[in-house]
Amino acid sequence: MRSRKVALLAALISALACAPVDGPRQSVERGDGAPPSASAPAAAMPGAPGIGDTDFPKDGNGGYDVSHYDIAIRYTPATKRLDGVTTIQAAATQALSSFNLDLSGLDVRQVTVDDTPATYTRQGDELTVRPARPIGNSSRFAVKVSYSGVPEPAKDQGNLGTYGFVPTADGAFVASEPNGSKTWFPANDHPADKAAFDFTITVPAGVTALANGEMVGQPTTAGGKTTYRWRERNPMVTYLATATLGKFELRQGRTPAGIANLAAADPRFKSSLDRLYTTTAEVTDHWTTVFGPYPFGSTGGVVDDYAAGYALENQTKPLYGGFDPGESIIVHELAHQWFGNSLSIRRWKDLWLNEGFATYAEWLWSEHKGRRTAEAIFTQYHSRPATDPIWKYPPGRARPDDLFNQSVYSRGAMTLHALRKAVGDQTFFQLLKQWAADHRYGHVTTDEFVALSERLSGKELDALFDAWLFQPRRPS
Ligand code: TRP
Ligand code: ZN
Fold first, then answer.
1. How confident is the model over 106-125, as pLDDT tens digits?
2. For residue 315, with 0-12 CB atoms within 10 Å meaning exposed, 13-18 middle and 19 or more buried, which class applies?
């Protein structure tokens, strides 16, 4: 829900590069040809096609800030056809003659801005919307996109495989990190823009729809179709949005500490359901004692039969793809609810702030359970030979062509353990809680983490962070 200096800069650059196409809204409304006064609003310009992440120049968009997505979809597994109407509430961060949304594939039928039809063009994954009248800087507006088609999941060159909206035999597996949300709804598809979400999902009766947050009312069935409503009221990045569909066994209740808990498993993973439910409850409650209050309205997890082989920390409902999730992956995905989901990165380079923390949480869990200590796990990684690829890849700058490299996870976690040893347990655990509290529902950068570490410890820590995060060699 916050704009970025860099996005403004990108918008400015694109504004300088393009001649203004529209006059300010005010003169359009008056239409009296009065000469602009010194206080005339800035000319409306096209919003930038990217939010300003230089590693992913087309991801997200400039010129506005989304506060709410209302995603209404109808999906038929037999035909793989999706019909959608997504309404986005946004505020302009510049005067806009046009702006972009990210959308991949799918046919657009209509776009309106504030209920007035808008013209639009498409080029690659960019949908450019030109409202009938320019939008004034700071104005709130609603853009509604009606679309349909067979969603095509995104494919990663690296180690992620297929992601986004992935059709399965009985529904869909929806895991969109880093930029797969645009495969199923038009979006400002970058973690720098967080928003609340409402979902209205209509599927054939017998199919369950599982989205983020909590269910609103009870599902309604008519004409052989069931409609589910879900609401995530807390800010969420687009890649954590899900509408995972299929036949599911459910178990619902509350954790011992009282947090609503929903576990779901594809019938093929029925035997995983109880353990998923109880481990999720135990781990969620434990992390509240280490990281501070649970940020969201509910916890849970979904095991689908799509053999992704990995999990994603979808907000309130981590998704496990085609395997019986063991304790440590549940621990990891639930730690992300604090680090990654409540606290989100502004640019993909800082991904270790998600993955390093979630991986270190696995080490903390092992220690908590009286198994191997974090120190023992750290030592084992640290003793890898200097030629190991983990030492060549500095985790503090995740590479766009290899974002989810092992170094971002394991060397990211080692960074936190090195920090713990440097500042002592008391300061370190105070720091984890303070970090989560200071930036709850917001955005974070590596520089901010270094600054807080130095402030709480009273120590100069530049050399430590530089060696662990930024050097292409093994720290001693
Ligand atoms: N963030 C996930 C994890 O470490 C990994 C991941 C990245 C992923 N992109 C994904 C999983 C897309 C599923 C789909 O837990
Ligand atoms: Zn992770």
1. 999 999 999 999 999 999 99
2. buried
